[in-house]
Amino acid sequence: MAPKIAPKTDRLKTRSFRKILVTEDSLRDMIHRGYITEGFARALNVDKVVAHPEDDEVVVFRHLFTAGIEFPLDLVFVDILRSCGMFLHHLTPNYIAELSMYMWLARTCNFTPSAEHFSFMHQVHHQPKVVTVMTAEGKEAESETQYGCHNFTYKSLVSSPVTAYKNKWPIDWTSHWFYHKVALDSVT
For the chain, how many structural domains are there in total? Predict the structure, then answer.
């Protein structure tokens, strides 16, 4: 039986997101819930599918906040992303849960968290998502998204706690994206 998805090397890559579902009302709700600070988030036109953040903005998904992400980001979090060559828009909500568990463990067991230590215990788990896009020639083609596609799993050489995070998120969670301001400095 042939695979239902073409091998990665044969697939086009797309930076287009799903049609945006975040509105000013949903941002106000997130401010009310304490997920974001007023003035730090920006919703876009609902027809937007390609992200063009300003220099001091990142693309984030609403469900990353549900999973526990907080701004400003911890420098260890930034180091972990940098060491893996990833950005916030690459992450699934479960990545945030995995990182939160690691940070909690560091505080509980009184050790200093680091990207090196995290990388010793975890490996990147790529979860490709395939969408249909229109090519420049006007034909439909399968394309692999470049957002919401990375998670972390424990390496087989380490003992790990039982998985205790939500494994299924709403099917449209990647449609709930917006821009969030970040501090720019020489460190991050």
Answer: 1
